[in-house]
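Quick log. Single chain, no ligands specified.
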Amino acid sequence: MNENLYYERSWLDGCFDFMHFGHANAILQAKITSNNVNFSKYKCIWIGLHSDEEIMQHKGSFPVMTLLERCFHVSFIRWVFKKGVVQNVPYVTELDVGVNDAYCEFVLHGDDLVCDANGKDCYYNVRKENRFLIVKRTEGVSTTEIIQRILTDSYKERDNIHDYNFFLQDKDDLKLCERLSFFKDGSSRYCWVYNKKFDNILVKGGWNWTDQDNIVFYNTSRMFDMLNAGDLEVLEYIKEKKFKNCKLIIGLKIGDETCVNNFRERLFSLVSCSLVDGVLINPSTEEIQNKDIKIDHIITDDSQLDIINSRFNYLTSEVIKDRIKSQRVIYEARNKKKLDS
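-> predicted structure:
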């Protein structure tokens, strides 16, 4: 191994099922941690994803999302080196399988202990080589908890207006939203967040509207619930094919009884996505029609896009719910084991 390249990258592996904002925040923290290490060239994060079969062996059930769906999603997290997404890495992290191949010095993970099917620490081999770094786990969100909502339908009892208003008053949530809006360097501002109108700024972005000549506003009925490869494929098409090099602003509805993810979870997932340059929360009709706002293209329905050769158009929040409910016994047993541990 060329030691000049060895000290340039960090490694973060996992299941990344649902790819919720807790995962995104872990990747951001890994990026920030890597920024504090004296790398000689590339301060980038490589992501390893476990195969569906490895997850089944060690967790007792297949992930909700397939490996292809999970890889596609994680590649659009703003702090991920897109060419550094590695499939089929072992559940028990081995330095000689993936990590060293990618010239990564450090392996990072959250502060929650992860064990294999035999109860052994999955990062034992990394720890004993002193190449393990810990990032703080994001409280308040987990794949287990999201699955539990679907199994019990508890999300249908949520007061979405209350959640929205609470978010606007919660300084910690606003601070987290600002962090998750950071640029790919993990430290500077990037993604704008507005509330109802473009002159009501919640999070100041890092790019200037007046310098842009291709701003697209996507404002359809799409809720971006359990943000997934089906959603991202649409945004990818807009940004990389239909309107190349555009700045993409997303209109985000507060939500209704069909949304498994609450308002803040959907917002946090969007602002941490590399395809998203801004989010307008709960856009008013007047604002959409405001001629003083410089918007070059407005998309109100996906039929305007004429997407062909779609890989993930089958994937919706309803499909995700059905996957879980059709395997109810398995997921209930897995969740009970996780919650009891």
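Residues 69 and 105 are 28 Å apart (CA to CA).
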